[in-house]
Amino acid sequence: MKKVLFIDRDGTLITEPSDEQIDSLEKLEYYPLVFSGLGKIARTGNYEMVMVTNQDGLGTSSFPEETFWPAHNKMLKTFENEGIRFSKIFVDKSYANENLPTRKPGTGMLTEFFSSEYDLANSFVIGDRITDVEMAKNLGSKAILIGSTDKRAELESKGLNSYCSLITSSWDEISNFLSDTPSRTASFHRKTKETDISIELNLDGTGKSDLKTGLGFFDHMLDQLARHGHLDLSVTVAGDLNIDEHHTIEDTALALGETFLKALGDKRGIERYGFCLPMDDVLAQVALDFGGRPWLEWDAEFNREKIGDVPTEMFFHFFKSFSDTAKCNLNIRAEGKIEHHKIEAIFKAFAKAIKMAVKQDGTGLLPTTKGVL
User: Fold this and answer.
1) Which of 86, 89, 100, 321 lies deepest, with the highest CB count within 10 Å?
2) How far is the C-alpha of 106 from the C-alpha of 90, rounded, in Å?
């Protein structure tokens, strides 16, 4: 999902004159260090940038449009020359006393962002007024207040403290705050009449695991995934093992795939692809692509009905279910004589493939020519 910066204009990107109208090129003055600060954020590729501004009475005789657009377009061109581009620009022309839903702190202009395509919970509104924090609350986002730092009392009186993540007068401080490497963690809960599953995942972990599926050998395989994938993984399952193992394993794989998809976010900066390894008599190969298209190629045969307490027929179902919900391509092959080694080698190679694929390359770019994964 995409994260968004909803950025105010006057008092945030450019300084605001006493009459609150930028109606000439002579009045156009940029907020100190906005180019270096916002440029640093833009280069991370972590956020889509959207401008949202109230322009009281724009288009009326007191604020003709022909005096507004030359300075506005000059401003946009200057930002573009610095590598800073706004995907969308929303201008509300009403007065405050009209109370239109399109005017900040209303979100009437921003309804397209209330969709599964956008991660509003991890998005920010950046502005210089309390109404910007109120808009963040209405969006389900957080806010950053820039300019005067004496607004804490007003925020507290309006119950907005929890919605404001930072108060500062410095774009450098904002860029440092937003350019920190985001946490790639996720939790997921899936409950049906057959299973109740809770999963917590940290893609940048150290290999720790806490596994309670009710199936000892399955826990052992998931431990391989955590340890060799350098993931922190917690899986708790209450399944209908009184019937058989099928629902527990398949539903865990579905939930695990959903958790990976959530933790990967928009997948910017990941290597995307990833491994083969030997284990005694076995050679296991797992090729993986977090490219958004589920597919499984499976070439592994088992000559035992069970390994430990897990039916060997369930290994195919595990990886098929994971591929479906993680939206990844998996090509898995294994050859060898010892069945335990065969499936353990597959899980280890799977872990190594994941470790390779989720590794960040530092560019912040999507690893695709399509523009989306």
Assistant:
1) 321
2) 12
Distance (Å) of CA 217 to CA 45, 322, 343: 41, 18, 11
- C-alpha pair distances (Å), 5 with each of 32, 85, 151, 363: 19, 12, 21, 19
CA 178/CA 42 separation, integer angstroms = 10
Residue 362 pLDDT more than 60? no
What pTM did the predictor assign? 0.54
Looking at residue 105, its pLDDT comes to 97
268 contact partners, CB below 8 Å, separation of at least 6 = 45, 46, 364, 365, 366
Selecting among 10, 92, 251, 289, the annotated active-site residue is: 10
Q: What CA–CA distance (Å, rounded) separates 118 from 134?
A: 19
84 SS3 class: coil
- Segment holding 6, helix H or strand E: strand 4-7
Whether 8 sits among the annotated catalytic residues: the reply is yes
Find out whether 349 and 286 touch, Cβ atoms under 8 Å: yes
| Residue pLDDT, tens place only, 71-128 | 999 999 999 999 999 999 999 999 999 999 999 999 999 999 999 999 999 899 999 9
Instruction: Determine the 3-state secondary structure of 102 from DSSP.
Output: coil
Q: Exposed e or buried b for every residue in 346-372, given b needs 16+ CB within 10 A? A: bbbbbbbbbbbbbbeeeeeebbeeeee
Q: Is 10 a catalytic residue?
A: yes
| 307, β-bridge pairs | 310
